[in-house]
Amino acid sequence: SGSSAAAPLPEEDCMKLNPSFLGIALSSLLAIDLWASKRLGVCAGEGSAWGSARPLMKVIEVSGHGIPWLLGTFYGLCQSDSSAAREVLLNLLFALLLDLVLVAVVKGVVKRRRPTHNKMDMFVTISVDRYSFPSGHATRAALVCRFILHHLVLAVPLRVLVVLWALIVGISRIMLGRHNVTDVLFGLLLGYALYSVVEYCWLSPLSAPALFALW
Known about the structure:
Layout: H1 11-17, H2 21-40, H3 54-63, H4 66-79, H5 83-110, H6 136-151, H7 156-175, H8 181-200, H9 209-213
Helix pairs in contact: 3-7, 4-5, 5-6, 5-8, 6-7, 6-8, 7-8
């Protein structure tokens, strides 16, 4: 009967029943990302497949942490007696601070939770570190790697080691279960691009005389 005829579905329900191709693709990629991240998190805990390698992965984690890099750069800046070295170190300090701010902002906006298999025993965290996207370690590793390759004269083996270090830092974030694969990939791309910003805003005695007057 006419009274028992089904009422038309609301527009939002129709959209749920007929998801867009883009929505299906994004959902599929997210599922693959979570699956791959879980499978690759072989050092996420002591009982994981590669749990015995977890201490080594945590050493690598510290090597890409912001605090050692900030303290080391600041110490070198204070001890340096070369104007050229001070200029490079001051810009590295600027790059590290810019990286911290940018990653914190993106994490606060996206608010993606860390993988469920992550063990929250990270070295020195702040409030936004409960979020996962992007990986700050990966961003910093790519940024520092590109900075070093452009501003330090190194032999080829050392240049290769610097690149390997950046890649290993990124991979270790997934193996420790700290991040998903996409967190690390985006972090590496962001760090690589961030170096271009640092180069564009390069601080020198001409562009920032007040800063150089402090040193």
